[in-house]
Amino acid sequence: MPRRAFGAAALFVLSALAGTAANAQANGDLVARGGYLVNTVMTCHNCHTPMGPNGPDFSRALSGGLLFDEPPFKVTGSNITQDKETGIGSWTDAQIKHLLRTGQRPNGVQIAAVMPTAFYGIITERDMDAIVAYLRTVKPVKNKVPDPVYKMQIPHHAFPGAEKPYTEAMLSDKVKNGFYLATIAHCMECHTPFGARGKDFVGDLGKGGMEFPGPWGKSVSANITASKAKGLGDWTDAQIRAAITQGVSMDGHKLRPPMGYPFYARMTGEDIDAMIAYLRMVPAKE
After folding, report:
1. Are 172 and 85 part of one and the same domain?
2. What is the DSSP letter of 40?
3. Considering the domain boundaries, does residue 263 fall inside one?
4. Where is the signal peptide (predicted)?
5. Domain edge (last residue) among 144, 161, 178
6. Strand residues in the chain grouped as ranges (E)
7. Can you say whether the dihedral through the CA atoms of 79, 84, 89, 94 is positive or negative?
8. Does residue 19 lie within any of the structural domains?
9. Distance in angstroms (rounded) separating the CA atoms of residues 211 and 176
């Protein structure tokens, strides 16, 4: 082979290898981002990982298990591993994304609002790709959960501000990024009380007062508005950070489940700071 031809061939091979390496790095970054969101911010394990005697059984991570038995429905946290028969291994990427954005399964059934899809419409296109890329890496676990029972039609209402995906550029603003993170963490799902017509995410946003019975007894969600009398208005940033990541209130008492602080503890300091910046902006409610 002439030297010039050999050099051109070698350059082509090196370019192809470099491209493959770059693609692998990009996919690795995407999976890492998805893992960060699924395993920390979105607290997916809270509902989708079965409980063992000492807490979540991570040997069967995301294989389903938490039961929600309410007047309108009786549902169990789904198996979202890559098992093709009992999980989402046979779902297409588009079907996974459609469920996350709309709450609608591939068969057209609208799932119960305990799955916080009302908050997921805000997820950026890149983060949605990342979440799906990560879920594709979750080991398959065969675990058939009971079929859901619905006693009424389940509506889908988007959380205010989460009606459409954020752009990546919007995340460069600290407060907007904080709102984004607090939204996909569905903080206001628990920290906004039910009213006569459901949750008022305008008039009662962050007011607290929801009750959560469980093996721990009964916990009541806190007021996380800027109220100085009942909310976070007099808390320091360090105290809010301790509550989010350590489950310790301003007065030192330990917060009870379902507050997901064991998961939030692994969020980056920058992301926690952004969430705090957003919480400072939540209008005071008494």
Report:
1. no
2. I
3. yes
4. 1-26
5. 161
6. 51-52, 55-56, 67-70, 73-76, 149-150, 194-195, 198-199, 211-214, 217-220
7. negative
8. no
9. 29
Count Cβ atoms below 10 Å from residue 245 Cβ, excluding itself: 17
**How many angstroms separate the CA atoms of 200 and 269, rounded?**
31
161, 186, 203 — which closes off a domain?
161
Under 8 Å CB-to-CB from 260, ≥6 apart: which residues?
43, 46, 185
**9 in a domain, yes or no?**
no
pLDDT digits (tens, 9 = 90+) for 195-232: 888 899 999 999 999 999 888 889 999 999 999 999 99
Owning domain of residue 264: 166-286
What pLDDT, on a 0 to 100 scale, did the predictor assign at position 37?
A: 99
> Do the beta carbons of residue 64 and residue 78 sit within 8 Å?
yes
Would you call the peptide bond into 71 cis, given omega within 30 degrees of 0 as the criterion? no
- Does 258 sit behind a cis peptide bond, omega within 30 degrees of 0 on the bond before it? yes
Q: Which two tokens stand for residue 179?
A: 């709102």
Rounded mean pLDDT, 180-200? 94
Q: Which residues contact 131 (CB under 8 A, 6 or more apart)?
A: 34, 37, 38, 42, 96, 100, 123
Total domains in the fold of the chain: 2
Same domain, 137 and 171: no
Residue 216's φ and ψ, nearest 5 degrees, are -80, -5
Q: What are the phi and psi torsion angles at 168 (to 5°)?
A: -60, -35
Same domain, 172 and 130: no
Q: Are 117 and 102 in contact (CB under 8 A)?
A: yes
Distance, in Å, from the CA atom of 111 to the CA atom of 117, rounded to the nearest integer, reads 9
Residue 193 tokens read as 């009380």
| pTM of the complete model | 0.90
Q: Do both 206 and 283 map to the same domain?
A: yes
Q: 10 Å Cβ neighbour count for 270?
A: 9
